[in-house]
Design a protein that fits this description.
The protein has one domain: 3-Layer(aba) Sandwich (Rossmann fold). Helix 1 packs parallel to helix 2. The protein contains ten helices and nine strands. The strands form two sheets. It has a seven-stranded parallel beta sheet, with helices on both faces. It binds NADP nicotinamide-adenine-dinucleotide phosphate.
Length: about 260
Amino acid sequence: MTNTALITGASAGIGEELARVHAENGGDLVLVARRKARLESLANELRADHGVQVHVIVADLEKSGAAKKLMAQVDALGVAIDVLINNAGFGGHGKFHESGLERDQRMMQLNMVALTELSYYFAQGMVERGQGRILNVGSSAGFLPGPLQAVYYASKAYVNSFSQAIANELQGTGVTVTVLCPGPVATEFQAAGDLDGVKGFDLAADARSVAECGYRAMERGELLAINDRKIRVFLEGLLPFLPRKGVLWMSRKSMEKSS
Ligand SMILES: NC(=O)c1ccc[n+]([C@@H]2O[C@H](COP(=O)([O-])OP(=O)(O)OC[C@H]3O[C@@H](n4cnc5c(N)ncnc54)[C@H](OP(=O)(O)O)[C@@H]3O)[C@@H](O)[C@H]2O)c1
């Protein structure tokens, strides 16, 4: 039986650690991102350390049609994908009406459209084979509106919702869907999204522990994984009962930069 995982955004952060966890479990990999040298270096490390097969595909998933092209490239490799990990994503900082639309459009394309299209394309083969796992990286941010990161928070609300809905639809097919909803994590995400100095990242978790949390939940076929217990209790036990304006105030405070 094969156990090949395709991971988007495998050149850094949580995706890179998810690739290491999968290889440690003896699984083969297709690593996807834009930075080829990073992917090649990780591929060499995983081949040498774990004797697994690793393919590298350079793809810019912000481009319209990129998911279909990626699917065709995987088909050309003759590899069946048993595990799809939709991890690539980025955020931003600033007021929506002042930030410029172009960046938000690229963010929506990557965080939502590419993730949706890849889930669609790869679910077909998984359902046919009667087995498969999809792990979508959403966010704790998807549980609430996020002033100063409005489109990012909304994009993650989409991922959280979409993933749970298709998990339900796929029941009985042998295919499970898990959504990983991390709190703040220390990765390149902060620098990429102009988030350095944002208060909410003061107590960021490490990427390895977040990857392990998501991977284990995916293996168990769980619906949702939140890496931090305090955040989980807050999001699931307290947040639904708080007044809307209070939630917005608190959410905005956590996104402000320390001067
Ligand atoms: N860090 C956090 O606090 C946090 C919290 C909750 C959720 N998340 C989510 O976790 C996921 C991973 O983020 P991270 O923290 O690991 O960030 P990261 O260190 O910045 O890694 C992001 C990954 O996405 C890839 N990527 C970015 N744009 C891409 C594009 N256009 N096409 C293909 N790949 C692209 C990057 O590779 P290239 O640049 O080489 O393309 C990189 O491998 C994201 O979905 C993020 O929203 C992060």
